[in-house]
Amino acid sequence: MLTKVKNTIEKFNMLKKGDRVIIGVSGGADSVCLAHIMNCLKEEYSLEIVLVHINHQLRGAEADRDEAYVMSLGERFADKVRIFSYDVEKIAREKGLTLEEAGRELRYKAFYKVAGDKGKIAVAHNINDNCETMLMRFFRGTGIKGLCGINPIRDNIIRPLIEISRAEIEGYCVENKLEYYTDYTNNIDIYTRNKIRLRLIPFIERELNPNIVNTLYRTSEIMAAEDRYLNDAAQKAYAECEVSPKRIDVEKLKTYDPVIQRRIIRLGFVDFSADLHDISYSNVENVLSLTEKESGRTIELPHGLRAVREQSTIYFCRSEERKPFCYEINIDEKIYCRELGAYILLTDKKCEKNAKLLYTIAFDYDKIILPLALRSRQTGDKIYIAGIGGNKSLKKLFIDSKIPMVERDGIPLLAMGSDVLWISNMKTSDRYKAKDTTINYLYMYLLEE
User: Fold this and answer.
1) What is this structure's pTM?
2) Fewer CB within 10 A of the end CB, N or C, for the chain?
């Protein structure tokens, strides 16, 4: 079996000489087998090996036993051992996750912490795990990417046992007199994965295909090759459609087949989320519906992601919850505005220019009723524009000025009720701006902190 694992390592270029390898070890057969095999390869690859164990605090004395056992394995198979302990049940409840989701998140958080930028993370997924994963995704609904199964290598995560069966692993442990512990929850068929492993796969092996595990592995390899081909095509198409960072041209997008369109949309979120499998088919279809919608329409997605139709483009971003802000501004009272990154001062006295003065605007004091407010936009806001001989709503002004939706709530403006006197970096009302005929002036100064 050692030769078989070495062939997998070479096939997928998992290791190179001098690698620092972080091995996730639970104390079960798979991870104990992996730790032993990597120790056997340690000299050949000049490896530094660190075992990492996470105590999920879910099984009382059993969890403590597993922790102690991994510590003893570290003395035999590793240069170092790192133990992490988390109250997974509490964390899952606080984050609104299942125990499985919270446990996985915490495990990988620990692995990445120990691995740093250069370490490899070796986990013990095997060919049976791959079969279970493919069936789970199939029943939930998936495309080619989901049917690729578990990647043998992804970023700095490697899976040296991915072509080894669970039976081979248990046989290896017996042959090498390796003790291991089985989590009793693995034999409870209340979880989807357990139902597939304990009931569905044995039925398929017995009634339909005795070699289903290997059959699905071959399918996953075929799907992975086709996925790579389609992804390369989508990367080229995305480059053709992108008119500026994370912004794609709708008309160019529509020239591609829907298969490539969907992948272009997913690529739009690559820089924002490491967990793109959570962007579902329906999410992607909703984003694609923006190609037929008017400017300003938004699609909210998991993990605080957002797609926005703006003019002839769709752009991708993170949702930023901007809280409304409002500062009451009185005469001769200097107030710091965090949104402007500066102090604002309203006064009827003309200030001399100085190094701290960033900006000055003069208003017709006789047309203004105090106090004024420096605030974020509100429904009904309008600004007077001489060129159109009347008021224009801020919503329309922002749309016409192509201000991205995500930025609009953060733009400071000076207002008197719903009448806007000034919009930061944009516009001053022609009704309130001082003119040659102005008698009394009200000055607004922005000053450095």
Assistant:
1) 0.68
2) C
